[in-house]
Structure formats: structure tokens, C-alpha cells
Amino acid sequence: MSLSQIMLTSTKLLTWSVFAIQLIGTLASPAVPLPLEVVHAEVASASEAEELVLTPAGKFPKSQVHEVPGGGRVEHDGETVHILSANGTTVSTAEFANLKRSTLERRNLPNGYVVLAYWSEGSIGNPINRFTSTWTVPDIPQSITGQTIFIFNGLEPSVGDAILQPVLQWGPSAAGGGNYWSIASWWVGPAGVFYTTPLGVTVGSSLTGVMTLESITTPNGVTTYNYNSVFSGFPLSSLSISSTRELPLAFEALEIYNTQSATGLPRGRTEMRDIDIVRRDGSRPSVSWVPTSNSANGFGVQIVANGVPHGRVDLIYPNQ
What we know:
320 residues, mainly beta, ten-stranded mixed β-sheet, nine-stranded mixed β-sheet, 2 helices, disordered N terminus, signal
């Protein structure tokens, strides 16, 4: 695939991870020279001059990125988005965003998804009720140059234009952060970007990202899926959202931005372990992860165990 074809694809797709799957495959080709010019998941508003801020789905206009109080939720009412506190009080409202992609950026390492594994059995009338993964906070990168690293499990609708994700972050983003590891839940979709306040965590800590389908309701006759994302043991990372679409597409992923070399990343690998997926009726599906990574730059992914409740996917960093 030529660079012009990649650019054309990026303008047509409104997907983050599905697009990343295609992009990683392109970057893995040894014919692509370094430094790489890559399309990454940036979006632009109608006003191209508006400041863009970094999220786990790329860069978005600042006006379309919103903080949600810990334990709060996001609800849509027509063209209005309501941000509610944990007790149900409306904290703020925002207009439904109209997001689109842009642009190219040159880096020594690519921006965006560099390692991921995905799985879905589609919408079968028995949706994913709970998706959990456990991993350990990695060591601090050897080189600190303003880079941002996101590690997460996530759920998306089949068309891939939104993602719910409990995210471990190194470095700065729209939510804050710095030269330390922190956690937050994020909901990224056509309506905008929503996140909980980041909470600092220490190297070596064990984290479990949990996404749960709390209920299915039919307000005004419209089927609505009510999801929650949280890190177990960190209630202030809880974020609840309502979607008119099921989220059947599961991911384990590593995403990077502004990383100048391999020394700006952790060493070795991050083990996404004890992966479990439970359907609404309590049954567990037969899971077979599809791996993809930017191997041209030394990234890798190893499917150690497909089965649930003790699945394992290793996200592998380049040698340093």
C-alpha cells in the first residue's frame, strides 16, 4: 500500500483500532524507510486552527475533550451530551461533536497503535457482559523526552468508531499526566472524548482493567447499552456511558506518541494476563486473538493463551 493510499484510507475511515490494524500491517513491510511518515489517529474540527490535544485515540480538538468526575457517567440526549457526577447531578453539557481524521507526522518511531490483538464474535444477541485484563505497571523508560505511552484493554462497536478503555498512561495527555504512570478510564466516540481524572500508580503495581455491561434499557423504545469502565480497587477511575450500540470488539493494545527511540519505552514486554470475557448469559466464548504489530520497528505481540478466564497476550517492546 502506498502512502497516498494510506492517506485516502484515513480520510474515509472513522475507526481508530480497525484503521490501526491496517496501518500496522503496512508499517511492518521492510520496504518502508525510516524515519517513518505515518498516518495516526488524529482528528480535526471544522476549525483547523483549534488546538489539538492528545488522547488514547490520537489528537482531538480541545473543545471536544471533557473530564468526567470519578464515578460519573456520560449520557446523550439528541445533539447534547450530559456529564453527570456519581450522584446523578449534571456537571456540564456539551454539543455532540462531529469528529473527522487528519494528518501526517514524521517521527523516528510511529505514532499511534504499534501493538494490538483483537477478537470479536460480532453481535449475536448475547453481548459481552464483562471483559477484564490484568497487567503490571512497567519500569520507567530510560529516556524521557516528552513521550506518551498508553497500555489498555478496550471494547468497541463493530464499526470501530468509538472505544471504551481503562488506560495506563506514561507522559502527558489531554487528561494531564507527566513523567510518571497514571490510570484513567476513557470513552472516545463521535460525540467527543471523555475521561476520568488520572490517578498516579507506582512501578510494579498490579492493575486490572474491567469493563462491564451494567444493563440494557429501552428509553423511548431505543435499545441502550449501559457500560462501565474501571480499574479494580480504584473507584475514582470509574466511568459509565450509555450507547445505542453494543460493544462486541475486544482489544489488548500498546499505543505511543512522540517516542524518539526504543529507549523511550519500557524494556521487555507487558503481559496482559488473566484475560476473561463473559457473555450476558454467563457463558464464556471461545476466544482466538488476532495479533498484529509494527515488527519493522521491533515491536511484537505473542498470544500466550487464547482461552478465558486465563488468557494472556504479551505486548513486546523493541530491543534497547
